[in-house]
Amino acid sequence: MDVDGAPKVFDEDEDAARREERERLKTEKRKVRQGYRKLITDTDVFGTHEATLDAKLLVMSADLGVQKSKQLRMGQGGFDENEYIAKLINKMGGYEIDNDQQAMDWTKVGKIAMRWSRKVPTMDFMLGPVAVEHKTRTISQRTRVVRDPKAMRKPQELREEDIARQENETTKNVLQINTIMEGLERKVNLFKLVINPESFGQTVENIFYLSFLVRDGKASITEVDMADPSLGEDEAWVPAEGANIQPMVELTEVPDAEDYQGGLLKKQMVLEIDMATWRHLIEVYDIRETMIPTRVSREMQEKGKWYG
């Protein structure tokens, strides 16, 4: 049945015409697809220069399409907003002549719209607060900090005589270690010599002072097997597995030019030690007393003077 309630008569010719139209549209779409595939195959490029020109043509074609779409007009005369609003007001029965207005009948527009939309009207909700409090930005002015020159302390200057004093302290401590080693009748364990169980800082200083004696050739450090100390005398000696190897230090005669010409080589090493290793060495070698006496530091007994 149609909209007016009359029975709808089935027309075979009309149905056949619709099927024919659908087949025609399918054929046209198939031809268009084939044309696109052929165009893609014909425009395929293999060189970089041709690919650049192809991309440039594609960009120009896209820009031209955008311009054409902006100039697209609906129908012959185009879409006029003022004419549309005037016809809508006329349809609703409203007009304005010499400020004499007649109310528009919105029911007429509603009935026309209901032909195209039969949805049940729903309830809308307003999201967000009804009133929004405007936040004002507070600008805080920073005050410049002005320091009192009287309260500022001038850094202490290090003068040339202070540096000379420090050098004299280094020389004195190096000579002290040399004197201690002269009083020993045999080699001494390196760690038992330099480690001060009371001070980690002075342990590091002792290693530093001993390095001057090694540098000048007045002392040597060798690896010795404590099970047979004589094995360490041979430079080609290879420690056996499980040997008790310890670093031993002793005073030596200062080598001359002939010794170096005979094949004597200077060797240098870096000894790294931290507090954990320092504590571990104290326990391993059972070091309870220091062979190098603990030095008493003196700090600024006189104003402007530095002492080591």
**What is the strand arrangement across the widest sheet?**
3-5-4
Measured between the Cα atoms of the first and last residue, the distance is 117 Å
Beta-strand content estimate: 5-15%
Structural class: mainly alpha
Largest sheet: 3 strands, antiparallel
If you had to describe this structure to a student in words, what would you say it looks like?
With 308 residues, the protein is mainly α. The protein has helices at 12-42, 48-70, 81-91, 106-114, 160-182, 190-194, 200-215, 257-261, 275-284, and strands at 95-97, 100-102, 188-189, 219-225, 245-251. α5 (160-182) packs across α7 (200-215). It starts with 11 loop residues before the first helix and ends in a 24-residue tail after the last helix.
